[in-house]
Known about the structure:
Blueprint lengths: L1 H16 L6 E10 L5 H12 L4 E5 L17 H9 L3 E5 L17 H19 L5 E2 L8 H9 L4 E2 L15 E2 L7 H10 L5 E7 L3 H4 L3 H12 L4 E4 L1 H6 L6 H6 L5 H5 L6 E2 L1 H30 L7 H20 L5 H19 L3
Parallel strand pairs: 1-2, 1-7, 1-8, 2-3, 4-5, 5-6
Antiparallel strand pairs: 7-9
Helix pairs in contact: 2-8, 4-5, 6-8, 12-13, 12-14, 13-14
Amino acid sequence: MAKFKFFYLLLFCFISFQGISGKMKVVFRYDDFILKTDKVNEQVVRTFQDNHIPLVLGVIPCDSNENFILEKPYLFLPVLKTGLKNNSIEIALHGLTHQQIVRGEFDGISMTEQNRRIQKGKSFLDSVFQTNIKTFIPPFNSYDKNTLQVLVNNRFTVISSALCFGQSTVNAELQYAPETIENFKELIPVLTRNRNRNGVVIVMFHDYTFKKNYSISELQTVLESVNKLDFVTCTTFNKLGEGSEQLDERRINANLESNLLSKKLKLNAVIQTTVFASTIRIVNLIAYLLLSVFFYFLTYLIFSKNKKIRTYRHAICLLMVIVPTGLFVWFHVLTPMVLLAFAVSLSVMVSLFSKFK
């Protein structure tokens, strides 16, 4: 019992004091923006500018017929261009037409077609804004390995999708900046809980956010609250990539969800540093294994008439428990609670099996 207490004391100290002078970085990503007059879009942009907080606009360049979307005259365009020049706005390519083709607009289609769509969309937005767009936001957060190579070939540096399993992060020339929050109401609590850590939070939202369950006045309140947090820096994907913040494959994989310990400690919704996230994953694995061993011996002592522990037999049985449990936990084969049930059930079954040997 003393060893367990010491283990949890070390864990508590690590979580409490790592990154004690931490700095949280926040990126706001506004998807499905089109270059046509829209009252909500304009209100959102102006609200961010009034609060001196940068905003990334995921722009859809074409309609379903691949006709360029640019209202004539688009009276709000000068505001966007000015924001681009003073770094209060970043323009990101949000697909070409935002259509569901196979699995989204890009995942599952040929590299040639992906290249055509990305080149056409980028060329149009580059010419409209006289810029060089470097961030790609895949529609429906869906893409594949071909997408990554096409992005590199077209000089993109950042891809922003979602923090989930099954998505490729194998191209070392790209930064991966997945969304972590979709509900503004979660933002301040998340930042406050992580005030002593170095992490990245990416807030993704759409125009319909303000048509369903949120309002511009509520957005104003949240942004004012963010400005009061001295440990928070608001930035864009371009500026994030220019700094020392590395959002590489190793860091994203370390931060993948379905980690029971992360959920219990409320560490999700933040892209934690690689070292911190990796440590949490390892501790999470150890916790599952210790729990499995505990239930194995508990079951054995309860049901076995012979309380003597035979080292060789139990070593084999424990391997039958910890190997599959460890693999399932590390590779996120099941959800956290299902994994917990699996680990306990496997421990009990193997323990019961061992008493008949």
